[in-house]
Specification:
By secondary structure, the chain is an alpha/beta fold. It is built from eight helices and ten strands.
């Protein structure tokens, strides 16, 4: 008897994955570690990022080079290429591992919502991405057989802002990432304590507030206060943030590293 086939949309994962991309890599690895009674096909733009699935029984990696080359091509492929791929593979379910799904997938669909920042804090999401979300996210949620959220807070936001979807929301909190277990015991000792921020350096990460809080705490504590380490790739609309970071760096209180 043919096992049900689930098509996973992992097109978002590039060679420098950030939060959502990293979560997709972690999720597929964990799913492949146990037989679920299902077969899986993973639609990807960067096959090399999914080498951890190569030997997993019942799993296959499906390269989608047509979706490479920028957000516009990826958006177009999501609406046209994914349904065609679903038909070719005869997949029984499409799970979009982010919150935009094909409007006509041709089968039941599941959508994962990581956050609704584009609705709650639209000023922190650049155009035209904000317009794209406004156009495609609501129908993606309405058509989904289930909407998966990675936190109770996001599940509450989805149910409040999209009330018709509420009964189909499922909360699946993140687990511990694999890199924690792979960490070497031979890590050199920390020479001095520091505060650490990890994330793209952009408005949505609330870095202005972080720098405000750090400056306030440092001013109250005086000498000996720990430094601040920011680790993350360059975002957008960050000129004011960069000027503040340069001032802190010049004073020896801040270190900034890239991705």
């Amino acid at each position: 008897m043919k096992r049900p086939l689930v098509l996973l949309d992992a097109l978002l994962v590039d060679r420098r994955p950030t939060g959502v991309g990293r979560s997709i890599l972690e999720l597929t690895g964990e799913l492949a570690g146990t037989d679920r009674g299902l077969d899986f096909a993973v639609a990807v733009t960067e096959p090399d990022m999914f080498g951890h699935l190569a030997a997993a029984p019942g799993w296959r990696i499906v390269p989608c080079p047509e979706a490479r080359g920028g957000n516009v091509r990826k958006a177009w492929y999501t609406q046209t290429g994914l349904p065609a791929l679903r038909r070719r593979l005869e997949a029984d379910l499409l799970h979009s591992l982010q919150f935009v799904a094909p409007l006509r997938p041709g089968c039941p669909s599941v959508v994962t919502v990581h956050d609704l920042a584009w609705q709650l804090h639209p000023e922190t999401v650049e155009q035209p991405r904000r317009g794209y979300y406004r156009l495609f996210v609501p129908p993606s949620l309405r058509r989904a057989a289930a909407v998966v959220c990675n936190s109770a807070a996001t599940a509450t936001d989805v149910a409040r802002l999209h009330p018709a979807v509420g009964p189909r929301v499922v909360t699946t909190p993140f687990g511990t990432p694999n890199w924690v277990w792979r960490a070497s015991e031979d890590v050199p000792p920390v020479r001095e304590p520091r505060f650490l921020f990890v994330g793209t350096l952009e408005p949505r990460k609330n870095l202005e507030r972080l720098l405000d809080a750090y400056a306030l705490a440092r001013g109250r504590a005086g000498a000996g206060f720990p430094g601040l380490l920011l680790v993350g790739g360059k975002g957008w609309r960050d000129s004011g943030l960069r000027r503040r970071m340069e001032d802190l760096s010049a004073a020896g209180h801040l270190e900034v590293r890239d991705y």
